[in-house]
């Protein structure tokens, strides 16, 4: 689902990579195209049309570019491109959002932090995506005691906490076996329950070293010494904020993938960046975040870690060749466009 803005450009390159790696690995791929976001609104009158919904339900995995753009901002709320994304997330029950933040050594100078603080950074934030304060009831703006008040509700059930905690522990098992659960248990009852349930799930994973951190401290520690973390697991709003902060540690929005998974292992894979309307159609967007999303797709939905690693190695090799799109360009590097980068990745594979 290419979507809007640079979406079609970067997804085209990611599909070239997927097809090449499919040939290498003997994957029997069947690829369908789906409309989503503004592009779907323009063509079908809705950001998440019925045909897209049906295609999504048939799929083992979904690769998405990006949605949105200034031309859609005047649409009524329910027809905006972002609604397409919310629609597919809730439709497929994509409750677990995985956001790796990896700093490629070749790009160390792009970070705003000192090289020794971030070099070799490789952390994973697991964010709960379908619950918490963004979805809790009641919510609204109403008149109380002669003035208006706005309110939302932060609510998590035991089963919601349990399943996201399990994703966190399972991810930690495949990595450095350390999990940090982030909450605000000194202030919030919901966090007290969160901590209790995470502890309980932790008993099933005795090999994983579990720690807890308050979200304010976690924000500070993430900037002070991010390499102390392996996997972090947290709720929807805390995860929203922490994962953007973690992304900036790596300095390159065009390099970071994400996965959103449901309990059947079906996933939606997309770059963390948006539709970048300012550079759309110019052939200069960095396709690597989308290509690395393909790697996550192979790992988490198609169970082909071997092919995911091949793609990640190809990204490293192309960076070693000094090829750079404008967003990561620097002195002494060779400038390439979106297609040039895609071709180089296919050649590296
Ligand atoms: P959204 O609200 O959809 O998250 P946003 O307003 O946060 O979008 P982006 O679309 O992510 O913003 O763009 C932020 C900046 O990063 C823009 O200047 C954009 O050109 C740049 N950018 C985003 N993605 C890429 C990419 N793949 N390659 C190069 N530059 C990018
Ligand atoms: Mg954004």
UniProtKB/TrEMBL annotation:
NCBIfam families in alphabetical order: leuB (TIGR00169)
Protein name: 3-isopropylmalate dehydrogenase
Reactions performed catalytically: (2R,3S)-3-isopropylmalate + NAD(+) = 4-methyl-2-oxopentanoate + CO2 + NADH
Site residues, Important for catalysis: 134, 184
Top-level EC class as recorded in UniProt: oxidoreductase
EC number: 1.1.1.85
Organism the protein comes from: Thioalkalivibrio versutus
Family: Belongs to the isocitrate and isopropylmalate dehydrogenases family. LeuB type 1 subfamily.
Superkingdom to which the source organism belongs: Bacteria
Role of this protein: Catalyzes the oxidation of 3-carboxy-2-hydroxy-4-methylpentanoate (3-isopropylmalate) to 3-carboxy-4-methyl-2-oxopentanoate. The product decarboxylates to 4-methyl-2 oxopentanoate.
Gene: leuB
Binding site for Mg(2+): 216, 240, 244
Keywords: Amino-acid biosynthesis, Branched-chain amino acid biosynthesis, Cytoplasm, Leucine biosynthesis, Magnesium, Manganese, Metal-binding, NAD, Oxidoreductase
Keyword Manganese: yes
Subcellular locations according to the entry: Cytoplasm
Cofactor(s) needed for function: Mg(2+); Mn(2+)
GO biological process: L-leucine biosynthetic process
Pfam families, alphabetized: Iso_dh
CC cofactor note: Binds 1 Mg(2+) or Mn(2+) ion per subunit.
Chain sites annotated for binding NAD(+): 69-82, 274-286
Molecular function via GO: 3-isopropylmalate dehydrogenase activity; magnesium ion binding; NAD binding
């Amino acid at each position: 689902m290419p979507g809007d803005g640079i979406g079609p450009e970067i997804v085209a390159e990611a599909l070239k990579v997927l097809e090449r790696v499919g040939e290498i690995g003997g994957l029997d791929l069947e690829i369908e195209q789906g409309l989503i976001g503004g592009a779907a609104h323009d063509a079908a009158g809705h950001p998440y049309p019925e045909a897209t919904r049906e295609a999504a339900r048939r799929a083992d995995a979904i690769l998405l570019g990006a949605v949105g753009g200034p031309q859609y901002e005047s649409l009524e709320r329910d027809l905006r491109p972002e609604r397409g994304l919310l629609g597919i997330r809730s439709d497929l029950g994509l409750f677990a959002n995985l956001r790796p933040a990896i700093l490629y050594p070749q790009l160390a100078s792009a970070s705003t932090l000192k090289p020794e603080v971030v070099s070799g950074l490789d952390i994973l934030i697991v964010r709960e995506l379908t619950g918490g304060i963004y979805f809790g009831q009641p919510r609204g703006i109403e008149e109380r005691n002669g003035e208006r008040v706005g309110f939302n509700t932060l609510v998590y059930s035991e089963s919601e906490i349990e399943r996201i905690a399990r994703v966190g522990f399972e991810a930690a098992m495949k990595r450095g076996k350390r999990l940090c659960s982030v909450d605000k248990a000194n202030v919030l009852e919901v966090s007290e329950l969160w901590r209790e349930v995470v502890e309980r799930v932790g008993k099933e994973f005795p090999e994983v070293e579990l720690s807890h951190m308050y979200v304010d401290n976690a924000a500070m520690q993430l900037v002070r010494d991010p390499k102390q973390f392996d996997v972090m697991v947290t709720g929807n709003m805390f995860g929203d904020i922490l994962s953007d902060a973690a992304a900036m540690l790596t300095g390159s929005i065009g390099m970071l993938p994400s996965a959103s998974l449901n309990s059947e292992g079906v996933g939606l894979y997309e770059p963390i960046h948006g539709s970048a309307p300012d550079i759309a159609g110019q052939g200069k967007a960095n396709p690597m975040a989308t290509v690395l999303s393909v790697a996550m797709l192979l790992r988490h939905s198609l169970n082909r870690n071997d092919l995911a690693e091949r793609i990640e190695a190809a990204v490293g090799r192309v960076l070693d060749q000094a090829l750079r799109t404008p967003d990561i360009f620097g002195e002494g590097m060779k400038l390439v466009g979106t297609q040039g980068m895609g071709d180089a990745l296919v050649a590296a594979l």
